[in-house]
Specification:
InterPro entries: DinB-like, DinB/YfiT-like. The protein is mainly α. The chain has one domain: Four Helix Bundle (Hemerythrin (Met), subunit A) (Up-down Bundle), CATH 1.20.120. Helices cover about 60% and strands about 0% of the residues. The protein is built from 8 helices and no strands.
Amino acid sequence: MVETNLSRIIDNIDTVFRGDAWHGPSVMEIINSLPESKLKEKPSISKQSIAQNIFHLTAYRRFVIEKLEDNIHFRLETDEENWGTEEDLNDPVRLKENLLSTHMTLLKKLEEFDDSLLNRNVPGEYYNFYTLLNGLIQHDTYHLGMIWVLWQ
């Protein structure tokens, strides 16, 4: 397979998510190591719990998928859309499964495109897909750090 800019970005998205990242443990390595009792704790240093951060990682992937499907109107506007409801956060297994499934859907969707995607504007936004996809990598890294801090 010929490496392209998009294929490198896809690889970086998956590396930060599933493993072998230069910065240390990946998103799933940390999440799979967490004791379930820690998921819903609300430490004083953050408004969000670990469970809410996991939900948010899923929500941001849904945002990217919707934009790849040309949904100009899709937004994550409310706290519930960004951080989940009590019901969304109650089942740790479902929370993790939803994140993994949404990640796999995103990778599959991205494989439908070529490098021309990177210069296209994101529907309804002022930036292009290059910025959005690199932002996803940065977003994952930031929330991975938050999850790590909240776990300690």
